[in-house]
Amino acid sequence: MASTSLFLPTTAGAAAAATARRYPFFSHRSHSHVPSTRLRRAPRLVAVSAATSPASSSLDALIFDCDGVILESENLHRQAYNDAFAHFGVRCPPASADPLCWDEAFYDELQNRIGGGKPKMRWYFGENGWPSSKIFETPPSTDSDKEKLVDIIQDWKTERYKEIIKSGTVEPRPGVLQLMDEVKGAGHKLAVCSAATKSSVIMCLENLIGLERFNGLDCFLAVQPGRKSKKKTPEPEVHSQEQHHSSCSPSDDVKLKKPDPTIYITAAEKLGVESKNCLVVEDSVIGLLAAKGAGMSCVITYTPSTASQDFTDAIATYPDLSNVRLEDLKLLLRKTLVTG
């Protein structure tokens, strides 16, 4: 298989590579540095009296990320990319005997540092040389051909990812459905904001949380793929429900991926709540940065691939949501808002 070892761009607080011998160009980190106790413990819950908890210091909306939070998706995405590389005979560098294959250790580093499938491919091909493939027999040299290559691979990969999700072998992470039901039952706003492609997020939500919960979302935001634009700072696009999915709650599309905070800022606007009264559930530093950039508090439910990241700015970290209740989160947010 083609080699996948090169230095990745850094993100503040992100972990370095997990396997120094196999990936000598990564910043090194030994396995011994991955904490067995999984980073920060959730802060001890402190009851706050009515005198110190004004109405503005409350939880109005809980916002979930999708990939990594609702489901552990890293290996599913990696499988879909590798299937796409094999399908199109993508060889990078072009002289490689076998199609490109991103292994688990490399993909963990890649997906935790670069958000979005197209940016991942653009960066990788830019560093390793644009590939030969069944799409272009010789490596593309013009910007338009490079974008065409990335678009075709990403579109095929997205459809392959949907097939994996629809196979019935994927389940939501522990505690997710229970917490969603608690939020809706208590009359709070519930949203899903994902940096993944909108069509694949819809497929995930339909299959993993069910149509009733999906239709009950107060806000659903995802990335609507578009071809390269001349606009330097694209604004969120607002579309009617029927343009994307007839059973989806009112939804909007954004073009800027996390860690840009646009998706969470847009969510607060659409939910009609202040950012400070929103609580975000994320699994990675990239998502945490987006939430903080929007002025929102964030709790982390980490996965094996994100467990060693620096979540200092989160108000709590959990291995999963199985023992997390709505009241716990309300008290955490209230304490955070009161203490500043």
Short description:
It is built from ten helices and eight strands.
Tally the helices: 10
What do the pLDDT scores average to? 81
Q: What is the strand tally?
A: 8
Instruction: Note the quaternary state here.
Output: single chain
> Radius of gyration from the CA trace?
20 Å
**Coarse shape:** elongated
Q: How would you write the strand order of the largest sheet? A: 4-5-3-2-1-6-7-8
Structural class: alpha/beta
Distance between the termini: 51 Å
% residues in beta strands: 5-15%
Description:
This protein is of the alpha/beta class and 340 residues long. Helices cover 35% and strands 11% of the residues. The protein has helices at residues 74-87, 104-113, 117-128, 143-166, 176-185, 198-208, 211-215, 262-271, 285-293, 326-339; strands at residues 61-64, 189-197, 219-223, 237-238, 251-254, 278-282, 297-301, 316-318. An 8-stranded mixed β-sheet has the order 4-5-3-2-1-6-7-8, sandwiched between helices. Strand 6, helix 9 and strand 7 form a beta-alpha-beta unit. Helix 4 packs parallel to helix 6. The protein is elongated. Residues 232-245 have a biased composition (Basic and acidic residues). InterPro entries: CbbY-like, HAD-like_sf, HAD-SF_hydro_IA, HAD_sf, PGP-like_dom2. This is Haloacid dehalogenase-like hydrolase domain-containing protein.
